[in-house]
Write a structure and sequence with these properties.
Blueprint: H1 9-18, E1 29-32, H2 40-44, E2 48-51, H3 60-77, H4 104-117
Parallel strand pairs: 1-2
Length: about 140
């Protein structure tokens, strides 16, 4: 999301949800656009985001199904996944974020390999975000 007065809209929204009575321990799952500028605050307050795996985005429906299945697994097993955030010092230009081309093709293939081979990994998201402009009022 984008807002002129709040730099991290998703993080602020999740923080408000967490502040509601009884919502502090509820699992939060959802779908992310792989172009999103997602913050550590957003990720660390959630349990199961699934990012689009393709650009152009032809997998939005599948990402929603995957996120719903992840939420179902959390609710039915009682397991509480830990979301990890590892930012990269690299920023691809928009022309480098197509998943049919390098480097995204190899990064996505590696992410799917990790998911297949590491039972403890629920989802590996490769984010190809864009640097956002400096907000007028930070949150």
């Amino acid at each position: 999301m984008a807002c002129q007065t709040v730099r991290d809209v998703e993080g602020a929204l999740i923080e408000r949800i967490r502040g509601l009575p009884g919502a502090g321990q509820l699992p939060i799952c959802g779908v992310l656009d792989l172009h999103g500028n997602i913050s550590r605050r957003t990720i660390e307050q959630s349990q199961g985001f699934v990012a689009y795996r393709t650009n152009p985005h032809s997998d939005a429906r599948q990402a929603a199904i995957d996120a719903a299945e992840l939420l179902d697994r959390i609710l039915t097993t009682g397991r509480k996944p830990t979301a990890l955030f590892e930012p990269s010092p690299l920023m691809w230009p928009p022309t480098g974020t197509g998943t049919a081309d390098e480097p995204m093709r190899s990064l996505e293939a590696l992410a799917r390999e990790f998911e297949r081979n590491e039972a403890d990994l629920a989802a590996v998201n490769v984010m190809a975000g864009f640097r956002s402009p400096t907000p007028t009022t930070p949150a």
